Amino acid sequence: MPAEMELDPDNVSAKSSPSARVVIPGDPVPEIPPSDVVILGPGLRREGPHAIVTRPGVLRHKPLPSSAEKLAPKAIYWVDTHAKRYVAARGEHVIGVILAKAGDTFRVDIGTSEPASLSFMAFEGATKKNRPNALPGDVVYAKLLVASRDMEPELVCVDAYGKKAGMGVLSGGGFVFTTPLHVIRKLLSPDCVLLKTLGDSIPFEIAVGMNGRIWVRCKSVKETISLANAISVAEYMNNDEIKAMSAKLVNALAGF
Amino acid sequence: MPVKDKALELRPLFAQLGLLGHTDGSVMFSLGQTAVICGVYGPAEVKPHKERLEGATVEISLRPPSGPTGLQEKAKEAVLKGLVESSILGSLHPRTSVFVSLQPLDMDGGELAAAVNATCLALMDCSISMRCLFASVEVTRTEDGIILLDPSQKQATKAVAKATFVFESVNQDVLASHLEGRWSEKAFQAGLQAALDGSKAIFQFYRETVKRKFSKELMMK
Amino acid sequence: MRDVPLSNLERQFLLDALEESKRLDGRSTPQRRPLELHFGRVEGTALVSVGETQSDHASLVYAQASASIAEPAVSRPIEGMLNIFVTYCGSAAARFADAAGTAGGDEAVEVTRLLERCLKESRCLDLESLCIVAEEKVWQIRLDVNILSAAAGGVADAASVAALAALAHFKRPEIHPVSERDPVALAIHHYPVLSTFAFFNRQKSGSNAEKIVCVDPTWQEEQVMAGKIVFGVNPYREICTLHLAGQLLIDKSVVLRYAHVASQHAKSVVDLIKNQLHEDTQKRLAGQTEEIGFAFAFKQNSILQNVKPAEMVSTANLEHV
Predict the structure, then answer these.
(1) Do domains A18-80 and A175-254 have the same CATH topology?
(2) Which residues are bridge partners to B166 per DSSP?
(3) Do C53 and B19 touch (CB under 8 A)?
(4) Cross-chain Cβ contact A222/C20 below 8 Å
(5) ipTM attached to this prediction
(6) CA B198 to chain centre
(7) C5 and A97: CB-CB below 8 Å?
(8) C-alpha–C-alpha distance, residues A107 and C231, integer Å
(9) Number of domains present in the structure of chain B
(10) Taking CB atoms and an 8 Å cutoff, what residues of chain B touch A80?
(11) CATH topology of domain A93-170
(12) Which residues of B touch C319 (CB under 8 A)?
């Protein structure tokens, strides 16, 4: 059983935000001053004049820059949750697996309740005559153009300027693995040192999908597997532990 | 007649979250020796003929420890379906399914209550949006009028009537009840009160379980 | 529900890694995943986990043995019967999440047949000792094997350990005209255990070249393999079951070589069953009823676990009835 999962009650540091607390569905949120206008983020929902918690996790908030406008929101409140199942959100980059071709579109699995559609024309330089070179089973890195609870998600592999911007079919080897969604958010947060620390010693290419899937490619199979494992075990580590783990990993790969 | 010493004792509780790694949420839960494993997928794919435009389709699968699935299991599935539908915010996920699979491992009294509590814990582990939580306890009544809270099979041998109550966490309303035998109004009220107090302890257990799960996350920022 | 599809990239990476004798979960090719066995409170119940629980690479199987009285088969009037039922629970993998309960389809049939060949046709259970009255009444042993988690593969191997453990742990009632006796254990002659080996073709050389062999393949490895052999072997190196699947041409020396490996695994499984059984018996004799049962199977100091001892519930307004 990984050491990071053990309970460590003596190590509670003062770093946690003073008003952050663990909440469960149905809890009221008395922290929100009743007269303020606030934004409710994930895990919170409005019921009449009050907000209630809808998902278990850590309740956090952040003040927003003050504005002269009368109804400008003063703060944003949200719940940091641990989940594995992805729910599509517009604008997010995801990694999908092509399931089939249907007419002029690909049906792509991105882990949501429905497969997403990806049009042949949504690739850089694609025309009616020039079709993208993608087969069922291929992995694509794409962006969600349409994502709502009532509609089938739609993906594109080009940005607003028609350029690929890193998206498209991922080829040339590499490995795809899944992690819970909070690990993805942690990986992409500016305070997390994992990718930077590992990148200082092992050259690698990475594509991170907000749907919990990550693609990595290093020069050798050994490095790729080690990198994938390093990302998976960093789930419960803080920055110091991450630095120590990366150092150990680099040594192991160098053969010490 | 005095109430017996152990009459109002809730047996030890145990929960292990995330036991089945590939599911969206899972738990192994035990109430005394009654143990059940529950796995949840959701909001996930739904078959076209079952999809609902207003919200998620809830499906429950409860298997007995041995033998084929019978009417008892189907009856429990129906109770659980109602509970899950009332507590999750299904309207956030139309045309999806929430699939709950339960496998009891050991049946030592309070099986329906254990299945209900395991379902709630697994739904929390899955982190699907819910408006409230639910918890359940079984009570029995003996011939001489003694109310027993959460009895084991051995303790329930003298029972002439049994009742399982399910409460929700926000207003402590009754979400479901399953009665066997005869209950006078007075006995029913007493049983209901005992079950309510028992369920409060279970809600407290849920809160502690979630606090433990997020203890490292809380320390991080 | 659909499983997460295995992409071409993953298949290729898996094969590339195997060329270098590396497996995705860090194991070496002859290495098996760790096996854990727990007995339940009721006699004849066993829970087996293969691999580290909670990761994506673990399988979980639950087996329960029970007995009832029935008429013997006409062709075998003095023998009891053993019936094996394998079901995949809805939580086993996304592909089994169906309330209608197809109970597993092809995979369940394969595992059922493997267990039947391994346990029934090998005659490891003494069926004559299950006779009560010849031609009229015999004990019918029912073995339910529930696959709780199959997403990681290795189900047949785990199921055979769970089935054997359940049979070894089970005690059938003893009927005696004079008095009632304690339940009695089943008479098991030998312990055959299933062991799966997956074969992969080398990418560069032709199909005649020596193949790469992995013991205890994961689900992904099974999707990519060229074929597999499943052995049912007991610790005395007697082969009870041999099952080949896939597109494979194998030399007989290969079969014998891996049968030896399977036999070593069988020996360690039997040791495990015997040790756990001994511990369980000691606890029951010492009256430590709180330590028996599945709730204690997974006790560890993890943040995902919570335990609360028995507590008195306050009932201020409770009236007597």
Answers:
(1) no
(2) B136, B176
(3) yes
(4) yes
(5) 0.90
(6) 13
(7) yes
(8) 40
(9) 1
(10) 214, 217
(11) OB fold (Dihydrolipoamide Acetyltransferase, E2P) (2.40.50)
(12) 186, 189-190
